[in-house]
Amino acid sequence: MISVEEAIVGRQSTRAFQDRPVARETILKILDIAGRAPSGSNIQPWKVWVVSGATKTALSQALLARHMSGDQGERNYNYYPVTWREPYIGRRRETGWGLYALLGIEKGDKDKMLRQHGRNYAFFGAPVGLFFTLDADMELGSWLDTGMFIQSVMLAARGLGLESCPQAAFCNYHDTVKAEIGIPETQQLVCGMSLGYADQDAKVNAFRTARIAPQTYTTFVE
Fold first, then answer.
1. Does the N-terminal or the C-terminal CB of the chain have fewer CB atoms within 10 Å?
2. Is the peptide bond preceding residue 21 cis, with omega within 30 degrees of 0?
3. DSSP letter string over 179-211?
4. Sign of the four-CA dihedral 215, 83, 97, 73
5. All domains of the chain, ordered by start, with CATH?
């Protein structure tokens, strides 16, 4: 078993997976562990939709068709700032261009960028996709609770030898996701996630993002 520190520090957005199935019992164990995440008044507002096999293939094809056609979709909520500013835009660019540089994608090569981004909708080759939803009438506190649950899913997965990639990109086509899976309109899609065993030989999985020092965002008041 890995330590809590190893689970957190070693976590990354894995973008290439082995073609190796994940047992349903393993998925349920991950979710059972993650279910110990805190929530206000213990209301546990999250819901999880697990896709694999033919359903995942059909969903992936539908999403990729929209993406490659140039249809950008419309997210069901603003994940990013409406107006970008520093230091956030700088960090975003550093991450995006760092990944593209590793993969040999030059600035301005829109076709390769489109195809790389499209890998999201193929679940980066992972055998399992997870989708996290909330009842649409829940408030901000439940979104915070669900975020803690999602982080716990990723850490629990690492403890069992799996890796993951949380993906807000699925929210671009939340209507297609809901239709293909059968998620009712009363549910709000928070994000998706690819889950599986990492392909350690894939170049893309060598990418690591930087983190700012805690002194940057911490204020001690004595």
1. C
2. no
3. HHHT--TTEEEEEEEEEE-B-TT-GGGG-----
4. positive
5. 4-78+121-203 (3.40.109.10)
